[in-house]
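Weekly sync, protein design subgroup
Attendees: M.S., D.O., the rotation student, P.L. (late)

Item 1: inverse folding check
M.S. brought a backbone from last month's batch and wanted to see whether the design step gives back something sensible before we order anything. D.O. pointed out we never logged the input encoding, so this time it goes straight into the notes. Structure tokens as presented (353 positions):
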């Protein structure tokens, strides 16, 4: 459907986006409140707030660079890999992962609440080189993946800094690439968390005091001789009403039933590595961004067929001469989205026509 979205005024950045997968975080408050954006740049994070006048242009309310320090390390020695806002039942936490540790901040980055060192992990049972993959789960937990393949589960109190590492999930043998949690409106779902790794393995979970593994999906369509760091990697996963959408280095998107593991759809979505996948929780729209310079929008819907799910392509947008790093919806319905690119000193924005 050409023309479904149109480009509007972009948001300028003081620092360009690093060449990292999923390098864009969006805090989507209830409409009509404006959203906040976060982009990783080397050893810092650009935090931007958009004013209510951002319809349709995207006026900046605030912009600052959060320089992260961990323990006794200086900012120059901390290479950040990901920043994510986690919306919990009673608070919002900004989580930052790096090659040195996991940091949790107040929503605006004004104060650090917690940090978990990875060089001397203490409670961690295996050597960890970096942390990557962040999601809020069940409104109570924050799950963070690490390079050993472990998923760390943190219990977050309603207020204060008494954050505790309460569980470690050991089902992956390769580095975690992405984690996603079910939206707060679907907490009674049989599955409410999904994790993926660089080897292409996907695990679905039911949260609780003890997280329960519901299904473990092996690498799909990749011969055993292919190395895990190859195009078989699962680069990003999202979850919606028990349905899992997974993006791969092959440029494909696959849709699974999170409880049974049944494959519902296999889509040749992009010509190159997919760097970002996002979902609009109110509508089931899926946004994908790839190194082929395209961002595309898909619709996941339920049908009366045996497999119960169908996927339709709705929109394609070519971001010419830009290696897309991050693509995220700016609202819960998918009426607008934002895109970042490597060495691009602006955030591109699009709205539904």
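Designed sequence read out in the meeting:
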């Amino acid at each position: 459907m050409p023309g479904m979205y149109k480009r509007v005024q972009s948001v300028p950045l003081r620092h360009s986006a690093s060449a990292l997968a999923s390098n864009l975080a969006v805090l989507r408050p209830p409409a009509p409140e404006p959203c906040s954006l976060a982009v990783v740049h080397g050893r810092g994070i650009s935090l931007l707030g958009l004013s209510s006048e951002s319809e349709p242009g995207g006026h900046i309310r605030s912009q600052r660079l959060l320089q992260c320090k961990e323990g006794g390390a200086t900012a120059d020695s901390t290479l950040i890999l990901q920043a994510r806002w986690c919306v919990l039942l009673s608070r919002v936490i900004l989580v930052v992962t790096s090659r040195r540790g996991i940091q949790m901040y107040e929503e605006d980055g004004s104060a650090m609440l917690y940090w978990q060192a990875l060089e001397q992990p203490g409670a961690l049972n295996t050597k960890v080189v970096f942390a990557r993959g962040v999601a809020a789960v069940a409104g109570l937990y924050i799950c963070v993946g690490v390079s050993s393949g472990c998923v760390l589960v943190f219990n977050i109190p309603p207020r204060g800094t008494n954050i505790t590492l309460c569980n470690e999930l050991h089902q992956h043998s390769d580095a975690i690439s992405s984690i996603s949690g079910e939206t707060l409106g679907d907490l009674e779902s049989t599955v409410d968390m999904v994790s993926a790794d660089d080897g292409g393995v996907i695990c679905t979970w039911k949260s609780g005091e003890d997280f329960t593994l519901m299904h473990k999906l092996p690498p799909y369509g990749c011969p055993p001789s292919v190395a895990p760091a190859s195009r078989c990697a699962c680069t990003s996963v999202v979850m919606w009403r028990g349905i899992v959408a997974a993006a791969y280095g092959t440029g494909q998107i696959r849709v699974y039933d999170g409880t049974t593991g049944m494959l519902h759809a296999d889509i040749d979505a992009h010509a190159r590595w997919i760097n970002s996948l996002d979902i609009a929780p109110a509508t089931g729209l899926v946004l994908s961004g790839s190194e082929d310079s395209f961002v595309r929008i898909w619709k996941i819907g339920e049908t009366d067929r045996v497999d119960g799910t169908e996927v339709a392509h709705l929109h394609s947008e070519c971001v010419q001469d830009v290696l897309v790093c991050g693509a995220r919806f700016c609202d819960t319905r998918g009426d607008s989205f934002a895109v970042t690119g490597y060495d691009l000193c602006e955030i591109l924005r699009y709205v539904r026509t």
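Discussion: Confidence is low (pLDDT under 50) at residues 53-57. The first strand starts at residue 5 and ends at 12.
Action: P.L. to compare against the previous round before Friday.
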